[in-house]
Amino acid sequence: MTALRTENISHAYLISGEQGSGKNMFADAFSAALLCTENGEEPCGRCKSCIQAQTGNHPDIIRVTHEKSVISVDDIREQLNSNVVVKPYSSEYKVFIVDEAELMNEAAQNALLKTLEEPPEYVVILLLSESEDVLLPTIRSRCVRLNTRPLPTADVVEYLTANYGVPDYRATTAAAFSGGNLGAAIAFITTDGASEERTKVWDFLRNIDDLSIPQIADAMRIEASEREEVLDLFSLWLRDVLVFKSTGKAKKLILQNEVHSIEKAAKVRSFEALDRAVRAVDEARRRLKSNVNADISLEMLALKLRDR
Ligand SMILES: [Zn+2]
């Protein structure tokens, strides 16, 4: 919220970042803070304006919507250009949020440019985009650019415990799993279907040293859409096995539910074997991307995870 701290509000911001990196969360927090009547750096969360913002009912926060896979010139004209001239209803500012701004075609961007060239003083436009490059240079040069980099793990944990009421250890797992990508962390704790897949992975890892080869082959028949997540879980598990092997401390583990199996796995594996396993996960990741036989790649990887 540096822009707010310096009281240097620009008329246009270009917020870029990959999907799930928190662009919308940032835009929501930014507009709420801008319109909060308590005038703090962060939205107070209690005033009428904040409550309207939280419930998506703020008359001075306008989200530009679009129907097809393109934001057309009519979308921009009807929802933005013709609306900016109307003074804010109840606030000092009027915020327009254009999500997926990269979907604006050239005509739409040129229409937006008209407003960006001479915006009314109360107007703040937030363009959210996965990539800046597809926007016209004339648009980009009029925007303050903000990049939503992945958040530090501690912030993700704090956000998840505060907003989703999950226990600390689950929030930590989700944060570590998601590599700081808030959207992925939220998906981790809220997606039921994926969590069934995860249960299977934990069952597999708990018993990995006792399974027969056919059982392993069977366990590694994983739906294409779930494979990458399974590799992430393997990485997380190996990370913990390594941490336990080096420190002997269960407290340092991310996977607090799996302490026993991690301890067991750490005892029988050498550092060299674990190192090979970590590299095998990376290798499997590469192989899956290049369309080789996925079941066999995963089976080979699973066998590597058992190396001692
Ligand atoms: Zn407030």
Can you put this structure into words, describing what you see?
- With 308 residues, the protein is an alpha/beta fold.
- The chain has helices at 2-5, 23-35, 48-54, 73-84, 106-117, 137-140, 153-164, 168-178, 182-190, 192-207, 213-219, 224-247, 259-268, 271-289, 294-305; strands at residues 12-16, 61-64, 94-98, 123-129, 144-147.
- The chain has a five-stranded parallel beta sheet with strand order 2-3-4-1-5, with helices on both faces.
- It starts with a helix and ends with a helix.
- Zinc ion binds at residues 36-38, 43-44, 47, 49-50.
Residue share in helices? 55-70%
- State the end-to-end distance: 49 Å
The CATH topology of the largest domain corresponds to Rossmann fold
Beta content comes to 5-15%
CATH class of the largest domain: Alpha Beta
Number of beta strands: 5
Main sheet record? 5 strands, parallel
Structural class by secondary-structure content = alpha/beta
Helical element count? Answer: 15
Order of helices and strands: HEHHEHEHEHEHHHHHHHHH
- Give the integer mean of the pLDDT values: 84
- Overall 3D shape: elongated
Bound molecules: zinc ion
Using only C-alpha atoms, the radius of gyration works out to 24 Å
CATH superfamily of the largest domain: P-loop containing nucleotide triphosphate hydrolases
Identify low-pLDDT runs: 1-7
Secondary structure: elements and pairs:
Blueprint: H1 2-5, E1 12-16, H2 23-35, H3 48-54, E2 61-64, H4 73-84, E3 94-98, H5 106-117, E4 123-129, H6 137-140, E5 144-147, H7 153-164, H8 168-178, H9 182-190, H10 192-207, H11 213-219, H12 224-247, H13 259-268, H14 271-289, H15 294-305
Parallel strand pairs: 1-4, 1-5, 2-3, 3-4
Helix pairs in contact: 2-3, 4-5, 7-8, 8-9, 10-12, 11-15, 12-13, 12-14, 14-15
The structure holds zinc ion (ZN).
